[in-house]
Amino acid sequence: MKRRNVVRIFAGTVVAGALSPHDVIARCGSHGGHHHWHPPIMPHVRPRPHHPAPVQVRSVDADIHIIGRVATTTLTMVLHNPGHRQQESEVIIPVSTKATIRQFGLEGAQGKFPAKLIPRDEARRIYDEIVRRSLDPALLEFAGSGLVKSSVFPVPARGSCQIRLVYEELLDIDGNRIDYTLLRTESPQYHVPWNITVDWTIKGGHAGVYSPSHAIHERRIGPNRIKLRNQGVMQAGPLRLSATARQNNHATASIMAYPDARQGHHTSGKGGYFLLLLSPPAVVDQQAVRREVTVVIDKSGSMAGKKMDQVLKASSQIIEGLDDGEAFNIIVYNESVETFSQEPVIKNRQSLLAARKYLSRVRVSGGTNIHDALQTAIGQKPTRGTLPIVLFLTDGVPTIGQTQEKKIREAIAAGNYHHRRIFTFGVGVDVNTPLLSRLADDSRARAMYVLPNEDVELKVAHVFRRLSGPVLSEPELIATDAEGNPRPGSVSDVLPARMPDMFDGEQLVVLGRYHQKNRLHFLLMGRDQHGPRKFQFNLSLKKARKGNAHVPRLWATRKIAVLTEALRDLGSENGKAVNMQDPKIRELVDEIVRLSTEHGVLTEYTAFLARDGMMFTHDMHREAVTRASAEIKKKAVEKRSGAASVNQDRNIGASKSARQLNRSNAFLDERLKESQVDQVCQVADKAFYRKGDEWVDAGLAGKDIAATQALRVNVSSPEFQRIVSRLVTDNRQSCLALGENIRIVIDHQTYLIQSGK
């Protein structure tokens, strides 16, 4: 006798499995030959003894091969039957409406199972029927897609088997950008492990590959081919990838846009958010930019022991790694400043031997004169024809000479006439992290923090490997009209406001708001080894769509970080009290709270919004601003060193340069341990907060939901079908991944979606 149940594997999204039991719907044989649909099994509910435990999805491997626009996706899924009898499972896998099945079968079994590719409209009817019987609205997050449907038998008792699906599709193209999507559930309770590999070949080569949804590891194989990898448990949501093709001797640009009339009220309601992917021209037979590297070493007493040993090894490794003809210098400091040479010297055998001898004589003692050491480094006459770089290492705060954080920053910014990039390394946690971060930012460089359990030598070497010289230095992006003349007001709130140098093979992500209707024009200016360069871009907004929900959320992530950093700067004047009630300061906090609430982007300063149930009260915003002000003052303003300061700078730095969504709102806490906020969920372009057994739309923030009229809708009712259709129109059907008891605002009407079980 065989048992039969339905396992939903959502293409790229396994919505069934031992690690996600609420997503399993089982159709089991019963008395009299009839079938009964059972509601989703929650983790704390034990199945009835006379029903077999449903087949579970244990893991998924996705192997994706793309040549140009043609993608072949192979999904290998491990199914496990925990029951004591073999079972038959009916598998449905949502896929792109453009997909064509090439293969489907049970690995190791003889013959092939028939698999039917069902188009979107028929797929929707199947979804609706399952939802009507199972009362599980989550399935309809895939309304609007096609699906693959088949039966799999046998799944052995207390055993596992693998099914394999291969399908092809022609990918969408937008200008010189090609987009690929692997459908996966957005349910916050989804935890099935995925291993994904992508092999993508583009004729002419990749200008860049970008994923707004997931962190990916990239490896280039030759000029035209790239391999991507993401292993282990991935955060929920569809995997989105975009590849941009190179252009001969020209920078590349591609735009993703999200329309939002609220952002463009002064231009007849036309506006929204944009994400711009920028890549520099390819380096073809160009001579590498020569570098001039000044290593600045803190030799104060606190550096004694392992720290100093690692720093000296790192310094030696950097100098040894320079090419002959490049230049270097060494500066060591405590309360005074010493130099290896008055000016940088060219690396050769003689200077290398002298540097080794100099480093071997360095001994620790004394205090920390950060100001004078930096002034000495930036005041050197640069070596002609080189890119001047400073690697500044310290394990402490300024204790000698000028010690005021703000004055040090201002002096170094004003005196850096030769535009040296100052890469700062905080060794340990007893460093002034805001100072080091802003010194790096002000010079288009980066700040790094080497924690007590990390290796200084490895951290420094990792950064230095990237410094082969930018393809385009000091880049500047200007919005223009069609003729290339500056056009103020067409875009605003562009982040980063100060663009970093652009390196070969890297892609810069720029976010902002637009106030145009059809097109955006940009001028990119910078310098390469031959002199000034200019590139013009003419980008269409016609494909702006609500499905690009990652764009406003990533913009909000960066904006919140910039505002927080501005507040953190208030503590830079030593000993000066900060009045958080100052209207200008209050305005910044107010905007942080508004953006956090609307987009569901929470930080260590605003996590209380989800945890304390404050969101849905009449005085929510006022109370939240007061609480956030206190959190920001206690942490961001007053903490300038220690682990509780290092974590903040690492969090702010990650958010300021955010390229991927952070759905779990993960951040480092004051103990440098990862923390997450699990009572807020970012789905489509909405945010939902958990209140009791409901997920509540952030659009109801500040309202007493008990007193707010909501139309109750059962998932088996015709009204629910109309709601689904409306959500599909706005690319918001993934909101249904939250399951039952969803309080959502649609077209100014509040609905409470319930299963009625």
Task: Give an overview in words.
This protein is an alpha+beta fold. It folds into four domains: 3-240, Immunoglobulin-like; 290-465, 3-Layer(aba) Sandwich (Rossmann fold); 550-681, no CATH class; 684-757, no CATH class. 22% of the residues lie in helices and 33% in strands. The strands form nine sheets. The chain has a seven-stranded mixed sheet with strand order 8-11-6-5-14-17-16, with no helix packed on it. Strands 21, 22, 23, 24, 25, 26 and 27 form a seven-stranded mixed sheet that branches. The protein has a six-stranded mixed sheet with strand order 35-36-37-39-40-38, sandwiched between helices. Strand 5 and strand 6 form a beta hairpin. The chain is globular, with a radius of gyration of 29 Å. The two termini are 31 Å apart. The model is unreliable at 9-49 and 264-268 (pLDDT under 50).
Going across the biggest sheet, name each strand in turn.
8-11-6-5-14-17-16
Q: What is the averaged pLDDT score?
A: 87
Structural domain count = 4
The CATH class of the largest domain: Mainly Beta
Helical segment count: 13
β-strand number? 40
Features:
7-stranded mixed β-sheet; Rossmann fold; 33% strand; single chain
Short overview:
Helices cover 22% and strands 33% of the residues.
Helix-strand blueprint:
Blueprint: E1 3-10, E2 13-14, E3 27-29, E4 35-37, E5 56-67, E6 70-81, E7 87-95, E8 100-106, E9 116-118, H1 120-134, E10 146-155, E11 159-170, E12 172-174, E13 177-182, E14 194-201, E15 206-210, E16 217-221, E17 225-230, E18 239-245, E19 252-259, E20 272-279, E21 290-298, H2 306-321, E22 327-333, E23 337-339, E24 345-346, H3 349-360, H4 370-378, E25 386-394, H5 405-415, E26 421-427, H6 433-442, E27 447-450, H7 456-465, E28 473-480, E29 491-495, E30 508-514, E31 519-528, E32 531-540, H8 550-568, H9 583-599, H10 608-611, H11 620-637, H12 643-656, E33 667-668, E34 674-675, E35 680-683, E36 686-691, E37 694-697, E38 711-714, H13 718-729, E39 742-746, E40 749-754
Parallel strand pairs: 1-7, 5-14, 21-22, 21-25, 25-26, 26-27, 37-39, 38-40
Antiparallel strand pairs: 1-2, 3-4, 5-6, 6-11, 7-10, 8-11, 9-10, 12-13, 13-18, 14-17, 15-18, 16-17, 19-20, 20-30, 22-23, 22-24, 28-31, 29-30, 31-32, 33-34, 35-36, 36-37, 39-40
